[in-house]
Design goal:
The complex is a heterodimer of chains A (308) and B (292). Chain A has 308 residues and is an alpha/beta fold. In chain A, 35% of the residues lie in helices and 29% in strands. Chain A is built from eleven helices and 14 strands. Chain A is elongated. The radius of gyration of chain B is 21 Å and the shape is globular. The model of chain B has no long low-confidence stretch (mean pLDDT 89). The chains are: A alpha/beta (308), B mainly alpha (292).
Amino acid sequence: MLDVQGLRKEYGELVAVRDIRFQLYPGDVFGFIGPNGAGKTTTIKMLATLLEPTAGTATLNGIDIVRHPEEVRPLLGYMPDFFGLYEGITVTEYLEFFAAAYRIPKSQRATIIENVLELTDLTVKKDAYVETLSRGMQQRLCLAKSLVHDPILLLLDEPASGLDPRARIEIKELIRELGAMGKIVLVSSHILPELADFCNKIGIIEKGELLVWGVVDEIIEQLQANRVLEIKPLGDPEPLIQRLERESHVHGVETRNGSLYVHFAGGLEEQADLLAALIRDGFRIAAFREESLDLEDVFMRITKGEVS
Amino acid sequence: MRALRENPLLRYHLLGATRHRWRRQPWLYGAAVLGIGLVYLLVLQLTVFSEASIYATLWLTLFVMCIAAPLMAYNLFSLEYEKQTWESLALTRLTAREIFWGKYGAALTRVALTTLLFAPFILTTHHTNGYVIAASFATLFGWGTLLISVSLWLSFKLKRTLNTAATLYAGQVIVLWLLPMLYTMVISLNYVSSYVLRDLISSVQSYTEAFGTWLFALFNGAFIVYANPFTVATELEHMGEPITYWRDTPHTLYREGLYFMLWGFVQSIFYLGLAALFAGLTYRGIKISWRK
């Protein structure tokens, strides 16, 4: 279990990350969302033990990352947003290097490397020189390197940045598989559709502050307390707008492309009552639906577009 | 020593990074080896047949060491930063000691091999003795070790390969050429002081006096000249010549003074001491910055 408790990082007067708290369990794939400069990478680097927090701490399976970084490091795999690879060696040699550096016994290395290559779909490239691999393959090799020692926590900072669509899909599949294997995966990104598919939990960070975190569906549900209803009337919309504005649950009405977008503060019962009332009053309604929220809507509603 | 045995970083820096280049560009590397080999043999032939003195051969080998030693270590840390590989390395179970020895060990091995490569030059020079040969090797290896230690530390601190290289070569020009020249110019202004460098050595006729002279040299600035490896080479020349050359001349005292001062060895110990200091600073830097 990863338990983050009040993690904070200050650079002089600048507070890059302020008092972040969340908990993740095996199998969780946590999407860490925020605009550039929000504090995602700083948080990940603190969790990766590369940066010392100004205050707060985190524990991984009960081990304090601040007080015992050397004990935590073998338990985590880290893939930075910008990374390089040791050149002049082959893919297998590269993985052997890290297997040796993680003190995996010689007798086990070949099997582990074979498995990791298979998982990351790099078996066909095992004898290729590292520097000859495409960006997508290098990304997968970096991930393979992070998996060699079978970590329980994976910290992936913008894993799909700079990849072509196919490589993006492949890396998403891989992350999903890692979650299914029972690893805790923390993935940061500022590209939301990238995360929507495979994260079961998200955290939205802005200006160094974790604005919201939790299970994706629950967050969407919370935000839908203020729903938007799309109503498509037949004929002149003006009488309908005037009628809607008299409703106590309605906070505003916008008109776009012949449809009315109604800001509605009620639940499903109130929606049904509204529809029945409108029809009873003689309005002809061609469509009546609640606008569903996706991760992008959630992000736009919660954040203000500020950086720390 | 575990930091050297089974150290993947040492293996990578010594073999991994270069092994495949031979296979990938055999013609380029073959031509380079052939060219360097030919120059090496030509110079060796000149040294043997023209009865070159230790002064000439040691100057030559020191010059090559000044050029080559920084290249053995100047990018060992800066490339980790430039290519963003240091974070992955820092997170492995390698200790700070292993990371340090993985890099320093590789550079030190290369300095040792370069010193050995120059052995035929030093061994075949004219008018040498055991002392001069041993002092020459010590000076060459000591200076090379100091250079790689400073290179490694600068590479760690500056984090940029180009800056490290520029600082190293500019630093050598200042330390080996500009500073001694400036010092000599300044003391030349005083007629009495202008003899200080040689007279100091000639006055030494015991090990106790030698110790005092070294201390004095530290304070009066003469150490800038004495610690220069090229000065070491120049004076070793006097120590190798047969005693009959010098008998009953003022130079006899000078030659004896050099022996009492353990000329060449003291400087080598100084280089190695300074090298250990820079190596220690690098090791400490890894421990602190990489949280190892």
